Amino acid sequence: MRIAKQFDFDAAHWLPMVPDGHKCKRMHGHTYRVEVVIRDRVLPDGFIMDYAVIAKAWEPLHATLDHQCLNEIGGLENPTTENLVVFIVDRIKPELRNLWAVRVYESSTTWCEWTS
């Protein structure tokens, strides 16, 4: 069984490795949506995991990412959605047993997903 919790944050960035003239080479911003998915069996208390545990694991990431320029955060100098997903997984996985997936939406129509 799987459960998921969604989070949003706003941030600016530019993509330094795209060709000159590419629109994403210029500073711009997104309201990112992040889905954190846990996969496990249902425990005797009737839960896979309390959603509050997921929210608590997300709090430090929100403080790091929200209303920031992603390029200025160590490890996100080239803040593609793919690199952002890896950044999030590396920091949240130790806090969440049986993390199954992290999906980051850059817009309502574009996303990147990591799965275990």
In words, what does this structure look like?
The protein contains 2 helices and 5 strands; from the N terminus they run E-E-H-E-H-E-E. The longest helix has 15 residues, at 51-65. The protein has a single domain (2-115), classed as 6-pyruvoyl tetrahydropterin synthase/QueD (Tetrahydropterin Synthase, Chain A), CATH 3.30.479. Strands 3-1-2-4-5 form a 5-stranded mixed β-sheet. Helices cover 23% and strands 33% of the residues. It is of the alpha+beta class and 116 residues long. The mean pLDDT is 97.
**How many β-strand stretches?**
5
Order of helices and strands: EEHEHEE
What is the CATH superfamily?
Answer: 6-pyruvoyl tetrahydropterin synthase/QueD
Overall number of structural domains:
1
Structural class: alpha+beta
CATH architecture: 2-Layer Sandwich
Describe the secondary structure blueprint for this structure.
Blueprint: E1 2-13, E2 28-39, H1 51-65, E3 68-69, H2 81-92, E4 99-105, E5 111-115
Parallel strand pairs: 1-3
Antiparallel strand pairs: 1-2, 2-4, 4-5
Give a concise summary.
By secondary structure, the chain is of the alpha+beta class.
Notable features of this structure?
5 strands, elongated, alpha+beta, Tetrahydropterin Synthase, Chain A, five-stranded mixed sheet, single chain
